[in-house]
Give the backbone structure.
Amino acid sequence: MYSLLRSLLFRLDPEQIHGLTLGLLRFAGNFPITYYLLRAMFEVRDPRLEIKVFGVRFKNPLGLAAGYDKDGVAVRGLSCIGFGHIEVGTVTRRAQPGNPRPRIHRVPQARALINSMGFPNAGVDALRVPRDATCVGINIGKSKETPLEQAAQDYCALLERVHARADYVALNVSSPNTPGLRALQARAAIEELLRAVIATRDRLQPRVPLLVKISPDMTESELDDLLAVVTTCGVDGVIATNTTTSRAGLYQYESVTGGLSGAPLRARATEIIRYIARQTAGKLPIVGVGGVASPDDALEKIRAGASLVQIYTGLVYAGPALIRAINLGLIRACEHEGVRSIGQLGNR
Ligand SMILES: Cc1cc2nc3c(=O)[nH]c(=O)nc-3n(C[C@H](O)[C@H](O)[C@H](O)COP(=O)(O)O)c2cc1C
């Protein structure tokens, strides 16, 4: 049914459809009938899917990746379609318009998207996170106009504003659409940033887990540098990965600026996850994201070392039935492997 609907929806501008879908989910989450109907249709409850990661208990390992609900307007609706967590944001200190439109391009033949959004959002003061929602991560980023040298002030101020409402906070230092942002991943820069942010986090009650979202475009030695800092300064995990600036296999899209997501990113994101898991002996929690569009793709991330998995582009191409399909597929994998919980499927 969704493929029929998609052929109609794909005639419209991607951002228009996105606004429409978010509006519907917001509406659905606010009315008891639609709320319970969607839950009955999409939710999968099974103790084998439950997992505790960085001290937080998730009802299943599949979450919505950042960027879909930037201002947290549809968290209740999104939580009824089966996600175990929703990552809202990226949110910045002040409202900002983002880059000029069009800034989302479909690449249907590759089941991919290229976006150059640049964090359009209503600012942290407008962020809405209902208290009864499923687990919510809040993804924070530097404002476009904040110079890199002052980035730590932005992240610390944002952390203070959001920590009480978040099950975890993700530092986005990997979007390709905010000029210079990825430079914050370099060793000296990330060390300075994390020192300030962790000091702020450690003063706040309750303690909130802090994750760093990284790019798939780092070399192994850049990753080693980043991991050396991340594993020694009190960070609780990494989210791997954000979109890529690479156009491998899609050279006709070289002139389209922005980050590529979806199927072409899958293998690279998994490679990064596997590398991190190996370098940290599986001790650093990893949220795996990039090109997940089927239960097997989610399993690939878990087997590579991810404890949680997120989707964005797969949802655009396959619709919300994908969430249930992945959760059911993970239960089947537990049965097949004879394990009692999803947490035991890793490294097999
Ligand atoms: C339109 C769009 C907007 C995005 N916005 C954000 C964002 O604001 N912050 C962020 O950390 N990631 C953002 N992302 C990246 C996704 O969270 C995810 O890391 C990436 O798309 C790879 O996953 P996927 O292949 O399942 O889409 C965005 C992705 C897309 C497609």
